[in-house]
Write a structure and sequence with these properties.
Order of helices and strands: EEHEEHHEEEHEEEEHEHEEEH
Low-confidence stretches: none
Distance between the termini: 36 Å
Number of strands: 15
Shape: globular
Structural class: alpha+beta
Number of helices: 7
Strand content: 25-35%
Helix content: 25-40%
Mean pLDDT: 95
Length: 288
């Protein structure tokens, strides 16, 4: 079941104009949102990011249309714990690159399974050849043009890693194919600045704002690859897998500051519990 333009649909198919620029040019945006006990976690932050990116792309998006669609889908299904994907395309347009003046966007909300075991895992990274273009506004957005990330992940998996480390064109650390990156250095929690080709992740924003509760001083700072190798811990964060500890980079085992990792994971658990009314990790889960 899914919602397309304020209408509930059964199954996984619906009619779509073949001229839709989401299909022809990847012209659109998406967000992925954790839902716990039927309540979306950080929905406002996701919609803020989507609407900000839409405004920069001159993509007319009505925020309340997504609010309605999310509420409609969650009301019509036994939502429980799941993952929502919000997507918007610019809609049909004539051939060519120019943005149509009469765009009629398509808004889509879908639901997928999510289990607590998907989060708080350890991962390994491999540095890939694909670079993040920090000069492009798309590096700061979740666009439908995601093939750089797809191909970066394929390269990393071919090297027996779980995810790809993406550097920018200047050789500084940007992100992984699916997550923001942090390092712990003493009591400091550092993450690359947005201007280095970084998506302003919602969980990234949460940790920057609340890391003091975990005894860490968080700030943005440019990072070189060697900073990851010399850190007390390296962490990757995203909306569904939350706080992942990076166990190895390019085959080299990385240190793991257990106390800091546990504290940050506990901070996120508390935030989910406060927003959604339940800690999905409470039974049989060790934060460290």
């Amino acid at each position: 079941m899914f919602v397309l333009n304020d209408e509930i649909h059964e199954g996984t198919t619906a009619a779509l104009d073949l001229r839709d620029r989401g299909l022809t040019l990847g012209d659109g945006l998406f967000e992925t949102i954790l839902v716990v006990s039927g309540r979306p976690f950080m929905l406002d932050a996701h919609l803020d990011r989507l609407c900000s990116a839409a405004a920069e792309l001159r993509l007319p998006v009505e925020r309340e249309a997504f609010v309605r669609a999310v509420a409609m889908l969650l009301a019509e299904t036994a939502a429980g714990d799941c993952a929502l994907r919000l997507a918007v395309t610019r809609g049909p347009g004539a051939r060519g690159l120019r943005i149509p003046a009469d765009a009629a966007p398509n808004l889509l909300v879908t639901k997928a399974p999510w289990q607590p075991s998907m989060a708080f895992t350890d991962i390994t990274l491999a540095t890939v050849a694909i670079r993040r273009n920090e000069t492009s506004p798309l590096s700061r957005m979740k666009t439908l043009s995601y093939l750089d990330n797809v191909m970066a992940l394929e390269e990393a998996v071919a090297r027996s890693a779980d995810d790809a480390l993406l550097l920018n064109t200047e050789g500084r650390v940007a992100a992984t194919s699916m997550a923001n990156l942090f390092i712990v250095r003493g009591t400091a929690l550092l993450t690359p600045p947005v201007c280095d080709g970084v998506l302003p992740g919602t969980l990234r924003t949460l940790l920057l704002a609340q890391a003091a509760k975990a005894g860490l001083a968080a700030r943005e700072a440019p990072l070189a690859p060697e900073d990851l190798l010399e850190a007390d811990a390296v962490l990757a964060t995203n909306s569904l897998r939350l706080v992942m500890a990076v166990a190895a980079l390019d085959g080299r085992t990385l240190p793991r500051a257990e106390k800091a990792v546990a504290a940050l994971r506990g901070l996120v658990r508390n935030a989910i519990s406060a927003a959604c009314g339940r800690d999905p990790f409470a039974v049989g889960f060790a934060a460290g």
